[in-house]
Amino acid sequence: MTAGAAALRGRGAASIETPSGKWRSAENFPVGSLLIRRDLRRHVHTFYRFARNADDIADNPALTADDKVRRLDRMAAILDGAPGEDSPAASAMRASLIERRLSAQHCHDVLHAFRLDATKLRYRDWDELMGYCRYSAAPVGRQLLDLHGESRKTWLASDALCAALQVLNHLQDCAADYRLLDRVYLPMTELATHGIGVEALARERSSPALRHVFDSLLDGTAALIATARGLPPQVCSSGLRRESAAIVELAARLLRRLRRGDPLAGRVKLHKSDFIAALVLGVSRGSRG
Prior knowledge:
The radius of gyration is 19 Å and the shape is globular. The chain is an all-alpha fold. It has 13 helices and no strands. The chain folds into 2 domains: about 90 residues, no CATH class; about 170 residues, Farnesyl Diphosphate Synthase (Orthogonal Bundle), CATH 1.10.600.
């Protein structure tokens, strides 16, 4: 245990978890929906709560980078068995992993991504952004697949889907991330190619040059979604197969909305009709798996 983590533990049962102020109610995709096997839903929700609470630490503008890392390290320690009640989400996650006899590796991977969020504010190019997604997004899909006992052959398509969802979310939140956290996920090479810098994100509307950057990233995301369409047919669990098919459809719909919308003018988001259509298509396509 680091000295910082020990100091946090010494504060007693006061929680190290803290809301970030970012919108929890604006999630794009279902988490542990009724399509998921009943006995696994609470484990899905436990993982989601763990990841979300860690994400909230990394996104809290009132905390210093060092404090964020100390809190995330403390969550990691509890995940690995350290005593303490200061991170209920980590304690619950550890209990879930023990019950399901799963490794904590995916949880540690997402904690690594949140440490990056606390300390890294810029990304050089698409490849570096995909390297970040390997830790911030891919472990989420892998955890769900492992929880269902699916083959690791599904990981390639799952990683593509999760990376696509991550980039779409980055584009949705690009203005707030820059204004509130000075964090920019848009690759610096893309901005430079179109002759602009990060300050373009401070405007009320996107410039033509920034629109070209968005479209370039959406092109890369469309390729990820094309790979992700191969995921549902590989999934054995009927509920997870249907849910993954619905999420692929939602990703495609959000991409189309971002093609037409301006994230600087207002948050581009899915509509109720998108969720209904994706659910119907997901159930239909998943049933043919």
